[in-house]
Amino acid sequence: MSKLKHGLRGLCVFVFFAMVSMALHAQADPLPSWNDTTPRKAITAFVQRVTAENTPDFVPVDQRIATFDNDGTLWVEQPMYTQLAFVIARVKDLAPKHPAWKTTQPFKGVLEGDIKAVAATGEKGLIELMAATHAGVTVEQFQKIVADWLATAQHPKFKRSYTECVYQPMLELLAYLRANGFKTYIVSGGGVEFMRPWTEKIYGIPPEQVVGSSIKTKFEMVDGKLDLMRLPDINFIDDGPGKPVGINQFIGRRPIAAFGNSDGDQQMLEWTAEGDGLRFMLLVHHTDAVREYAYDRKSSVGRLDKALDEANAKRWTVVDMKNDWKTIFPPAQ
Amino acid sequence: MSKLKHGLRGLCVFVFFAMVSMALHAQADPLPSWNDTTPRKAITAFVQRVTAENTPDFVPVDQRIATFDNDGTLWVEQPMYTQLAFVIARVKDLAPKHPAWKTTQPFKGVLEGDIKAVAATGEKGLIELMAATHAGVTVEQFQKIVADWLATAQHPKFKRSYTECVYQPMLELLAYLRANGFKTYIVSGGGVEFMRPWTEKIYGIPPEQVVGSSIKTKFEMVDGKLDLMRLPDINFIDDGPGKPVGINQFIGRRPIAAFGNSDGDQQMLEWTAEGDGLRFMLLVHHTDAVREYAYDRKSSVGRLDKALDEANAKRWTVVDMKNDWKTIFPPAQ
């Protein structure tokens, strides 16, 4: 008995220390999907410096604002922006109610997969598509349409839902920053109402911390209830120089850290860099044709050209996806 | 010695219980400036119901969004909106650099205190005033201009700074809601950049939780730095039907509680009321000509007419300032 007791106690002690060790290990490795290369070192060094009280680089918690682009920074944007895949699916869904679309551009092109014909309709065509697929419903109806589509749609290359095509290293980075007192925001050229239905569950970013492009809404009577109707008019384009404008408009503070992957993020990173005190700017460079995609200066989606030159010149951190990330996606659900 | 020890122990026990009693008392009275009348009872009943887990009215923390109008709801708006007092002061400040203003409306009227002449210039005149006093500087320069003005300006009736002309019962209400897991927002017709420099200190509401009217900004090179320049163009009017639009645009969730004092808040309260589950709508009715001001249906500033009828019809809570509030302002600093 005594031997058994002794053995049990030993086992308990072992389990206890194993758990402590795991806890310590977890604490010591908040970024397990990041290789021990420059970006990871730069991130952890920055966070340690701005959180060290009574040092020159310390930043109070309320000023620890970090902004993240979405397409290509937090989730896949190839072979086309997910929101464009949604537009195509929605045109197909709605087509039976609009027989004229079979013979009218840009709808005909979308239905027939004739991208050239769609592109030929230019901005006018894009606005018609946006009006047909994003407007004419209330804000809450649109949220449901988006959530329903995302629940079944699959990425053509990865054969998993779009919300599973998010970058595991970036999920860890978001959590790591929040654990260190940062408030994490999305600042995306994508539609704000296209992101808000799922960003809290997937990224831990609540709707009020999502900044994006938007169409106008109107407060009016809809089916006997006062509600917000979505109108076919552009309200705000949150891209390029619109990103610092949007950040100031929605957040009212300059970020101390900004994360992007394309020329559309250049001004957000520039404005972040121009603030006082220690700053952190990072670009995700898509270099992994096997595990994801490889593209930069010549890509029509998520082009990274001028911002890459500026990053190199100003020594912003650049993630080489192939070499700096151990894994790309979270495990399939 | 033993007697002394006994006495000391008794004293300690007494002090301990006195402290516990004070703590309990503090906990029991989060709204000491509110009389024990209907509004106070309605507020505490609402908060108790939405925070009681495993009951039908329970609301998860992340959905506890409360929106507050500012002018006339959180601070004094008579005899004129504080932002208008700022415009007048700024025109006087800038006048030496603009000699033509002495002979040109609406500036001449502002400089001479001729409100009729200013009013006669209509919307065009107001936009000129806005452009001259609110634009042509960077976002951060404007924040400093506002903060500097507020540091010395005094309210004409109360002879204290404008940020001391805030309502003590509402400060307690903001803190009480936050202590119960609510996220408190300002949703004001006033300029967002006019509020953000001071709302965190005065109300405990950080810049990113302030929604308001705005002018456009542009990301450009200013004095050799990339910065946000304020332009003389209206971007968004956050008033009346603009309030639900602004709330959706900036917060992306429908509030469960909304607080206002004028017809400009009617649609915000209506949209809040139309949501599912328990909701709370409150109007501050200015009925205290002695301690503050008495005005409603005929006032040109903060008119409360249609919204008061709707509040009565729909049994929204109406604060009778004279009878429901023990004190109006916090102690002078």
Architecture blueprint of SSEs:
Two copies of one chain form a homodimer.
Chain A: H1 2-28, H2 38-51, E1 65-68, H3 82-94, H4 107-112, H5 115-120, H6 122-134, H7 139-152, H8 168-179, E2 183-191, H9 192-195, H10 199-203, E3 210-222, E4 225-236, H11 242-250, E5 257-260, H12 266-273, E6 280-285, H13 306-314, E7 317-320, H14 321-324
Parallel strand pairs in A: 1-2, 1-5, 2-3, 5-6, 6-7
Antiparallel strand pairs in A: 3-4
Helix pairs in contact in A: 3-6, 11-12
Q: How would you describe what is shown here?
A:
The structure is a homodimer of 333-residue chains. Chain A has helices at 2-28, 38-51, 82-94, 107-112, 115-120, 122-134, 139-152, 168-179, 192-195, 199-203, 242-250, 266-273, 306-314, 321-324, and strands spanning 65-68, 183-191, 210-222, 225-236, 257-260, 280-285, 317-320. With 333 residues, chain A is of the alpha/beta class. The first copy, chain A, has a domain at 34-80 and 159-324: HAD superfamily/HAD-like (Rossmann fold), CATH 3.40.50. Chain A has a 7-stranded mixed β-sheet, with helices on both faces. In chain A, a hairpin with a 2-residue loop joins strand 3 (210-222) and strand 4 (225-236). In chain A, helix 11 (242-250) packs across helix 12 (266-273). The longest helix of chain A has 27 residues, at 2-28. Chain A is globular and about 80 Å long. The mean pLDDT of chain A is 93. At the A-B interface, strand 3, strand 4, helix 11 and helix 12 of A face strand 3, strand 4, helix 11 and helix 12 of B.
